[in-house]
């Protein structure tokens, strides 16, 4: 087999030298890129392999706005390294020119991270209103995040954070004050974080907390204690006066 391939290779090389142009493929050549879709952690790196069927490509390149690192090559393929990926979604094009014809293959690189945790703080009841506070930790991209408060299965508030465009992992705290109704006590309250990434939806939720009569602010507790003490004092005074009057009536 080696004795057959060697003359063919020499013939191809001789043809290039005589004609001054590279050999053309027998049909339309192809270009592939692998992987075509890749998700990485924000700030991470990835290798893409660009392969083709051109015997002697005139040129090959990777076109992207992402930072490029190392490069490896072999017959019919080149691998490119992309560094510090921080954009949510980036298109990458592998472009190869063969015998005057240019073809390309496209890959999509995404960077996102599900929240480490979603924590619903125990609500504080002040008067007829209570404060909801939710913590969403180490999430990216924040601009695609929607945070929702629910009482039972009912949505009572939600907020989209599309105004945030930072390129780094972030912690988010969302606060909302709501009026307490007569049926709110002992209702489960939850916080939900949703990343809506152009069709890819990532959900995370907190553990439920309850709004109870114990969920009083320190000021409200102090006022309640003072009121109870005053009421007890009044009852004791009334009781003492009643006993004294009974004793006076018996002595008569």
Automatic annotation (TrEMBL):
<dbReference type="GO" id="GO:0005886">
    <property type="term" value="C:plasma membrane"/>
</dbReference>
<protein>
    <submittedName>
        <fullName>Intercellular adhesion molecule 4, Landsteiner-Wiener blood group</fullName>
    </submittedName>
</protein>
<keyword id="KW-0732">Signal</keyword>
<keyword id="KW-0325">Glycoprotein</keyword>
<keyword id="KW-0130">Cell adhesion</keyword>
<dbReference type="GO" id="GO:0005178">
    <property type="term" value="F:integrin binding"/>
</dbReference>
<dbReference type="InterPro" id="IPR013783">
    <property type="entry name" value="Ig-like_fold"/>
</dbReference>
<dbReference type="Pfam" id="PF03921">
    <property type="entry name" value="ICAM_N"/>
</dbReference>
<keyword id="KW-0393">Immunoglobulin domain</keyword>
<dbReference type="GO" id="GO:0098609">
    <property type="term" value="P:cell-cell adhesion"/>
</dbReference>
<dbReference type="InterPro" id="IPR036179">
    <property type="entry name" value="Ig-like_dom_sf"/>
</dbReference>
<keyword id="KW-0812">Transmembrane</keyword>
<keyword id="KW-0472">Membrane</keyword>
<keyword id="KW-0677">Repeat</keyword>
<keyword id="KW-1133">Transmembrane helix</keyword>
<keyword id="KW-1015">Disulfide bond</keyword>
<dbReference type="InterPro" id="IPR013768">
    <property type="entry name" value="ICAM_N"/>
</dbReference>
<feature type="domain" description="Intercellular adhesion molecule N-terminal">
    <location>
        <begin position="29"/>
        <end position="116"/>
    </location>
</feature>
<comment type="similarity">
    <text>Belongs to the immunoglobulin superfamily. ICAM family.</text>
</comment>
<feature type="transmembrane region" description="Helical">
    <location>
        <begin position="222"/>
        <end position="243"/>
    </location>
</feature>
<dbReference type="InterPro" id="IPR047012">
    <property type="entry name" value="ICAM_VCAM"/>
</dbReference>
<dbReference type="InterPro" id="IPR003987">
    <property type="entry name" value="ICAM_VCAM_N"/>
</dbReference>
<feature type="signal peptide">
    <location>
        <begin position="1"/>
        <end position="20"/>
    </location>
</feature>
